Model the fold of this input.
Amino acid sequence: MRDEQILDLYFARDEQAIAVCERQFGGDCKRLSMSILRSEQDAEECVNDTWLRAWNAIPPKRPSPLRAFLLRITRNLSINRLRYNRGECRDQNLTVALEELEECIPLPEEHSPELAEILSAFLRTLPEQERLLFMGRYFHALPVEELARRLGLKSNTAAVKLHRTREALRAYLAERGYTV
Done:
Protein backbone atom coordinates (compact mmCIF):
# COMPACT_ATOMS: atom_id res chain seq x y z
CA MET A 1 0.00 0.00 0.00
CA ARG A 2 1.34 3.47 -0.88
CA ASP A 3 2.02 6.16 1.72
CA GLU A 4 -0.91 8.30 0.56
CA GLN A 5 -3.34 5.41 0.99
CA ILE A 6 -2.02 4.69 4.48
CA LEU A 7 -2.25 8.36 5.42
CA ASP A 8 -5.84 8.40 4.17
CA LEU A 9 -6.56 5.56 6.61
CA TYR A 10 -5.05 7.60 9.45
CA PHE A 11 -7.07 10.66 8.48
CA ALA A 12 -10.22 8.50 8.41
CA ARG A 13 -9.19 7.26 11.91
CA ASP A 14 -9.25 3.68 10.58
CA GLU A 15 -7.26 1.41 12.90
CA GLN A 16 -6.24 -0.64 9.88
CA ALA A 17 -3.62 2.09 9.32
CA ILE A 18 -1.66 0.76 12.28
CA ALA A 19 -1.83 -2.83 11.03
CA VAL A 20 -0.66 -1.78 7.57
CA CYS A 21 2.23 0.24 9.03
CA GLU A 22 3.21 -2.67 11.21
CA ARG A 23 3.30 -5.01 8.19
CA GLN A 24 5.12 -2.59 5.89
CA PHE A 25 7.47 -0.80 8.27
CA GLY A 26 7.58 -2.93 11.41
CA GLY A 27 10.70 -4.84 10.41
CA ASP A 28 12.66 -1.67 9.67
CA CYS A 29 11.53 -0.05 12.91
CA LYS A 30 12.42 -3.16 14.93
CA ARG A 31 15.90 -3.41 13.35
CA LEU A 32 16.58 0.24 14.11
CA SER A 33 15.40 -0.06 17.70
CA MET A 34 17.43 -3.26 18.20
CA SER A 35 20.58 -1.57 16.86
CA ILE A 36 20.19 1.11 19.54
CA LEU A 37 18.81 -0.88 22.48
CA ARG A 38 20.12 -4.40 21.86
CA SER A 39 17.11 -5.69 23.78
CA GLU A 40 14.28 -7.57 22.07
CA GLN A 41 11.69 -6.63 24.68
CA ASP A 42 12.60 -2.94 24.78
CA ALA A 43 12.72 -2.78 20.99
CA GLU A 44 9.24 -4.30 20.71
CA GLU A 45 7.89 -1.77 23.21
CA CYS A 46 9.43 1.13 21.30
CA VAL A 47 7.99 -0.12 18.01
CA ASN A 48 4.55 -0.49 19.60
CA ASP A 49 4.89 3.02 21.02
CA THR A 50 5.79 4.20 17.50
CA TRP A 51 2.36 3.17 16.24
CA LEU A 52 0.67 5.08 19.08
CA ARG A 53 2.78 8.20 18.44
CA ALA A 54 1.98 8.01 14.72
CA TRP A 55 -1.73 7.61 15.49
CA ASN A 56 -1.62 10.71 17.70
CA ALA A 57 0.43 12.78 15.21
CA ILE A 58 -1.53 11.91 12.05
CA PRO A 59 -3.65 14.02 11.56
CA PRO A 60 -2.83 16.90 11.50
CA LYS A 61 0.60 15.94 10.15
CA ARG A 62 0.81 14.37 6.72
CA PRO A 63 4.43 13.11 6.72
CA SER A 64 6.23 12.31 3.53
CA PRO A 65 7.88 9.86 3.30
CA LEU A 66 5.97 7.91 5.91
CA ARG A 67 8.77 5.38 6.47
CA ALA A 68 11.24 8.11 7.46
CA PHE A 69 8.66 9.64 9.82
CA LEU A 70 8.07 6.30 11.55
CA LEU A 71 11.79 5.53 11.76
CA ARG A 72 12.45 8.93 13.32
CA ILE A 73 9.80 8.25 15.97
CA THR A 74 11.27 4.80 16.64
CA ARG A 75 14.80 6.21 16.87
CA ASN A 76 13.79 8.93 19.33
CA LEU A 77 11.81 6.50 21.47
CA SER A 78 14.73 4.05 21.46
CA ILE A 79 17.25 6.69 22.47
CA ASN A 80 14.94 7.84 25.27
CA ARG A 81 14.52 4.24 26.44
CA LEU A 82 18.28 3.70 26.35
CA ARG A 83 18.84 6.82 28.44
CA TYR A 84 16.20 5.67 30.90
CA ASN A 85 17.66 2.16 31.08
CA ARG A 86 21.22 3.34 31.53
CA GLY A 87 20.64 6.40 33.69
CA GLU A 88 23.98 8.10 34.08
CA CYS A 89 25.78 5.05 32.67
CA ARG A 90 24.77 5.81 29.10
CA ASP A 91 25.80 3.67 26.17
CA GLN A 92 29.28 4.98 25.38
CA ASN A 93 28.92 4.38 21.64
CA LEU A 94 25.71 6.40 21.38
CA THR A 95 27.02 9.12 23.69
CA VAL A 96 30.21 9.53 21.65
CA ALA A 97 28.26 9.56 18.37
CA LEU A 98 25.92 12.28 19.63
CA GLU A 99 28.82 14.32 20.98
CA GLU A 100 30.51 14.12 17.58
CA LEU A 101 27.39 15.50 15.91
CA GLU A 102 27.00 18.29 18.46
CA GLU A 103 30.18 19.79 17.00
CA CYS A 104 28.28 20.39 13.73
CA ILE A 105 24.57 20.64 14.39
CA PRO A 106 22.97 23.30 16.60
CA LEU A 107 21.51 22.19 19.92
CA PRO A 108 18.06 20.49 19.87
CA GLU A 109 16.14 23.60 20.93
CA GLU A 110 17.36 25.26 17.72
CA HIS A 111 16.22 22.43 15.42
CA SER A 112 13.57 23.16 12.89
CA PRO A 113 11.92 21.49 9.92
CA GLU A 114 14.14 23.74 7.80
CA LEU A 115 17.26 22.33 9.46
CA ALA A 116 16.00 18.79 8.84
CA GLU A 117 15.54 19.63 5.14
CA ILE A 118 19.04 21.10 4.95
CA LEU A 119 20.48 17.97 6.56
CA SER A 120 18.59 15.76 4.09
CA ALA A 121 19.88 17.85 1.19
CA PHE A 122 23.43 17.55 2.53
CA LEU A 123 23.12 13.77 2.78
CA ARG A 124 21.98 13.61 -0.86
CA THR A 125 25.23 15.34 -1.90
CA LEU A 126 27.39 12.64 -0.32
CA PRO A 127 28.82 9.66 -2.17
CA GLU A 128 27.05 6.44 -1.19
CA GLN A 129 29.80 5.14 1.11
CA GLU A 130 30.02 8.38 3.10
CA ARG A 131 26.22 8.54 3.33
CA LEU A 132 26.09 4.95 4.62
CA LEU A 133 28.80 5.72 7.17
CA PHE A 134 27.04 8.87 8.35
CA MET A 135 23.61 7.25 8.64
CA GLY A 136 25.04 4.13 10.27
CA ARG A 137 26.93 6.14 12.85
CA TYR A 138 24.52 8.96 13.63
CA PHE A 139 21.11 7.49 12.88
CA HIS A 140 21.59 3.82 13.73
CA ALA A 141 24.26 4.51 16.41
CA LEU A 142 26.56 1.74 15.18
CA PRO A 143 30.19 1.62 16.32
CA VAL A 144 32.78 2.83 13.80
CA GLU A 145 34.45 -0.60 13.85
CA GLU A 146 31.23 -2.36 12.87
CA LEU A 147 30.50 0.13 10.10
CA ALA A 148 34.04 -0.27 8.76
CA ARG A 149 33.65 -4.05 8.73
CA ARG A 150 30.28 -3.86 6.96
CA LEU A 151 31.65 -1.52 4.29
CA GLY A 152 34.97 -3.33 3.86
CA LEU A 153 37.06 -0.48 5.27
CA LYS A 154 39.71 -0.19 7.94
CA SER A 155 38.41 1.36 11.15
CA ASN A 156 40.80 4.29 10.83
CA THR A 157 39.66 4.96 7.26
CA ALA A 158 36.02 4.95 8.36
CA ALA A 159 36.81 7.31 11.25
CA VAL A 160 38.65 9.73 8.93
CA LYS A 161 35.77 9.66 6.43
CA LEU A 162 33.30 10.40 9.22
CA HIS A 163 35.45 13.29 10.45
CA ARG A 164 35.65 14.78 6.95
CA THR A 165 31.90 14.34 6.49
CA ARG A 166 31.24 16.18 9.76
CA GLU A 167 33.55 18.99 8.66
CA ALA A 168 31.72 19.18 5.32
CA LEU A 169 28.40 19.24 7.20
CA ARG A 170 29.61 22.05 9.42
CA ALA A 171 30.60 24.11 6.34
CA TYR A 172 27.33 23.24 4.56
CA LEU A 173 25.29 24.37 7.58
CA ALA A 174 27.37 27.53 8.03
CA GLU A 175 26.69 28.51 4.40
CA ARG A 176 22.98 28.30 5.24
CA GLY A 177 23.22 30.31 8.45
CA TYR A 178 23.43 27.48 11.00
CA THR A 179 26.42 27.54 13.31
CA VAL A 180 27.18 25.85 16.57
Summary: The chain has a mean pLDDT of 86. The first helix runs from residue 3 to 11.
